[in-house]
Design goal:
The chain is mostly helical and 263 residues long. The N and C termini lie far apart (79 Å). The chain has two domains: 139 residues, Up-down Bundle (Ferritin); 106 residues, no CATH class. The C terminus is likely disordered. The chain is flat. It is built from eight helices and no strands. Bound molecules: fe (ii) ion (2 copies). The site of one fe (ii) ion (FE2) has 7 residues, from helix 1, helix 2 and helix 4.
């Protein structure tokens, strides 16, 4: 028996896991490969959004469950192999669903659109894995209590809360605003995750209990309560400072180009 909403619920959990897996790998890998991973994580966020929208439009419950996330050890290529495997799984799942639903089903065009992205991601990860060679990644302990983990967890919780509000808001304007807020929180999560990985070698974002669909009153309250607290702003300022110091350090490092060297 074909259960399209069961498919979409599972797809959402898989997309959610892909976002976290690629972000965590991006923080460990860094540099250009890390940027490519983050770019693909953003595609997965779009997929999660599209699937949630389709569910919400049909009056289906939208819950932010998360499938297991592969951490990985060894080198950059080993991490990327896990990401290739995740994309192979996604391609197989979407193909199977498209086949089961058939060409006339209203959800098929959406699944085909996502499938095209997943095929592209799979190839991109294969290419990156080949280019990565033997380079190792830092393997720190995924320790609780590292300087940035509290902030990263809090940011992740907020991303989920805002997304849940975005997916369930009856008012489209409020939904869009909540989505934008989720993106802001996602950016902060990225900063905190990068700092956390830099200081501890590895950041692991544990799964959160999916937030419940809020009532309109709770929704209004959440929106008011969500602006960053003073303490949180302080931590964000620290992150900005740390970035700025590294940037300035890079700009003021000794000249290496002979002809431009001050006499
Ligand atoms: Fe995806
Ligand atoms: Fe993908």
């Amino acid at each position: 028996m074909v259960d399209p909403w069961g498919y979409l619920a599972r797809d959402m959990a898989d997309e959610h896991a892909a976002i976290i897996q690629y972000l965590q790998h991006a923080w460990r890998v860094g540099e250009e490969t890390g940027c490519a991973l983050e770019e693909i994580a953003r595609d997965e966020m779009r997929h999660l959004n599209w699937l949630a929208e389709a569910m919400a439009e049909a009056g289906q419950p939208v819950r932010l469950e998360r499938s297991p996330v592969a951490q990985g050890e060894g080198g950059i290529a080993d991490l990327l192999a896990l990401d290739v495997a995740a994309e192979e799984g996604a391609v197989a799942a979407y193909r199977e669903q498209i086949l089961a639903l058939g060409p006339e089903h209203p959800l098929t065009p959406l699944l085909e659109r996502i499938l095209a992205d997943e095929e592209h991601h799979r190839e991109e990860f294969r290419r990156l894995a080949e280019a990565a060679g033997e380079e190792a990644v830092a393997v720190g302990e995924p320790s609780e209590g590292a300087p940035w983990d509290g902030l990263a967890h809090e940011k992740y919780r907020r991303v989920l809360r805002y997304l849940q509000l975005a997916f369930t808001a009856a008012d489209p304007a409020l939904g869009r605003e909540m989505e934008e807020q989720a993106q802001v929180q996602m950016r902060h999560l990225g900063w905190a995750g990068e700092e956390w990985t830099r200081s501890a070698g590895r950041a692991v974002i544990p799964p959160e209990e999916p937030p419940q669909a809020p009532t309109p009153a709770q929704l209004a309250q959440e929106a008011l309560a969500m602006p960053p607290t003073a303490g949180e702003l302080g931590r964000l300022m620290e992150i900005h400072d740390a970035f700025a110091r590294r940037r300035i350090g890079a700009l003021t490092s000794p000249w290496s180009v002979g002809s431009l060297k001050p006499k």
